[in-house]
Amino acid sequence: MREYFYRHLQAFFSILGRLARAPLATTATVAVIGITLALPCGLYLVVDNARRLSSGWEGAGQISLFLKREVGEAAAGRLAERLRALPAVAKVEHITREAALAEFKRLSGFGEALDALGRNPLPAVLVVHPATTHSGAATLEALVRELAGLREVDLAQLDLEWVRRLHGWLAIVERGMWLLAGLLGAAVLLIVGNTIRLAVLSRREEIEVVKLVGGTDAFIRRPFLYQGLIQGFMGAVLAWLLLQLSLWALAGPIRELADLYGSGFGPAGLGLDATALLLGAGAGLGWLGSRLAVGWHLRAIEPR
Amino acid sequence: MIQFSHVFKRYPGGFDALKDVSLELARGEMAFVTGHSGAGKSTLLRLIALIERPTRGQALVNSRNLARVPRRRIPHFRRELGIVFQDYRLLSDRTVYDNVALPLIVTGTDRREIPRRVRAALDKAGLLEKERMYPVTLSGGEQQRVGIARAVVHRPPLLLADEPTGNLDAQLSDEILELFLDFHRHGTTVLIATHDQRLIERARARVLHLKHGELVRDTGASA
Questions:
Q1: Considering only CB atoms, which chain B residues are within 8 Å of A302?
Q2: Which ranges carry the ABC transporter domain (chain B) (predicted)?
Q3: Is the Cβ pair A212, B110 closer than 8 Å?
Q4: Domains of chain A
Q5: With an 8 Å Cβ cutoff, are A215 and B75 in contact?
Q6: Which chain B residues have a beta carbon less than 8 Å from that of A210?
Q7: What ipTM does the predicted assembly reach?
Q8: In this structure, are B55 and B160 located in the same domain?
Q9: One domain for residues B163 and B202
Q10: What would the pLDDT profile of A194-237 be if each residue is shown by its tens digit?
Q11: Residue A85 class from Cβ within 10 Å (0-12 exposed, 13-18 middle, 19+ buried)?
């Protein structure tokens, strides 16, 4: 058992030495793997940050109050004033029936049909923007219930559709990210496989001799598997560094933009889980690519 | 140690390298396989080392039926042989010591045991002071002695050599022959393929003569 462990250690360090003796080829391979892995991870960061950002908006939805038809313009105006005084309310927009009709005509293209109705079927609307201090889901629900109970209000609707749509888009982008990750993972397999193929062919003579003195396939495979594993892992580390570098470069402008919106948002990097997944995937793909390539080419090398 | 009965080897394309070869080599015996180029000397050795498999006939080596050794067991089978090549087949990027240690490393020998056994093999080959050198810096005779040290370092019961003196002059050949005779005296079975008539006469061992793939003469077991 100790001998076995020792032989693994020996293979590991001999391959480290071999990689260090060919720094240019090693760097090139690791760079290609790193960039390939960085792409889906970068997309993941975009999705993750967009999600974090928009989760803060979820509560900041608007509440549309559709007023009863018998409520006149003046009464609606007074109601808006009353609502503005509430601590839970930041802002109230008053959309009169005429304004609503004009907007509807402009956007819907049913202008002619509405004209035929003779009178305006649309109610007046008060758009209530809750204060950020009252943007929690529960307080918001309570506010909606309170507003719905008002004498003048026909219907109170919490307007979160656009946030839901945003999340729909994010779900699509996320699915796309996994597809991309799958494709680029396959690309890493091919990159490592090709590197290992060259390594196997360049050591053909050595492999033949080892086979002649009784070396098993597992013994011959071992250093190549470590080579794939190490290159994949180093590629993942490089991908992580590339992401951190990009974040660092983007952090300034993002913070400035966030400040303009009065938000304290700052972009987050890869979490512990995602980093572990990245490093594990890099090493695993490297090992697998090497295993496939060595298995394939070792059979072709038999002693003469 | 080696038992061939009616062994044929036909290569793709229809060339018969060995035709109906039957022979027996006892444990501890020493023999030469001779004949012209293409007579089948190398093929015979390649069949014994399981580099190739016979087309027909039964071959037993070290009481193992070669036809029943599956591909994945071949490495374990080869650990019971030592093979010496005409072109030495040393690894140029490793020192003499590392070349000789290779058979021990692949078999997972206890690493505290390795230096002692490598040095014993190098001592026997007269190369003890050259263990830190690389093969290219050695003469042909020295390189072949490294090859022999590597072939015997794991103390195999059977030693095969394919034209071991093919690239060496008479004096170096004699030194190499001395080494083989010494292993034979210590109980190793030795089979040498060569067309070097002088070497065979000096050794006064059994001779198997191949001609166009057929065993045409066998001087029989000698003393």
A1: 51
A2: 2-223
A3: no
A4: 2-56+164-298 (no CATH), 62-159 (3.30.70.3040)
A5: yes
A6: 102, 106
A7: 0.91
A8: yes
A9: yes
A10: 999 999 998 899 999 999 999 999 999 999 999 999 999 999 99
A11: exposed
